[in-house]
């Protein structure tokens, strides 16, 4: 069964649609994901055999591949948002969950590379939560 997902970058220049199904959903705490996200972890969805179509802004997209690894990022050159990477050699599309404008139909399955997590990335569910900026 195939699903149509859509997404965009923060500035709106880059828009895409993805036809396929998410099979894996990992929260990756490795040092590369921490660097590119500026946060505790990336939230990456993987859709094997999916078809990625750029609806706008394809000329604004930049691609970065970390030397001698499979680690790659596709991002909007105007606003820096991560957008999907079409990993054709691996037969899948990797989608940063945060760039989707449609609901995700699977839940995160695992935290991975916990041995490289930041020293402040500990029991985050216990941190006080607010609906907006606390006064
Ligand atoms: Zn953008
Ligand atoms: Zn990672």
From TrEMBL:
Entry-linked Pfam families: GFA
The entry's keywords: Lyase, Metal-binding, Zinc
Signal peptide: none
Sequence ranges assigned to domain CENP-V/GFA in this UniProt record: 5-135
Family designation: Belongs to the Gfa family.
Protein name, UniProt field: GFA family protein
Organism: Marinomonas maritima
Lineage: Bacteria, Pseudomonadati, Pseudomonadota, Gammaproteobacteria, Oceanospirillales
């Amino acid at each position: 069964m195939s699903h149509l997902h859509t997404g965009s970058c923060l500035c709106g220049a880059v828009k895409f649609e993805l036809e396929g199904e998410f099979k894996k959903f990992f929260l990756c705490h490795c040092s590369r994901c921490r660097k590119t996200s500026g946060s505790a972890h990336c939230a990456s969805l993987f859709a094997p055999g999916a078809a990625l179509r750029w609806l706008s802004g394809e000329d604004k997209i930049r691609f970065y591949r970390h030397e001698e690894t499979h680690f790659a990022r596709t991002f909007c050159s105007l606003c820096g948002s991560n957008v999907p990477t079409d990993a054709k050699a691996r037969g899948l599309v990797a989608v940063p969950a945060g760039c989707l404008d449609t609901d995700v139909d699977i839940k995160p399955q695992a935290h991975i590379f916990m041995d490289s997590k930041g020293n402040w990335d500990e029991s985050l569910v216990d941190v006080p939560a607010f609906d907006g900026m606390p006064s």
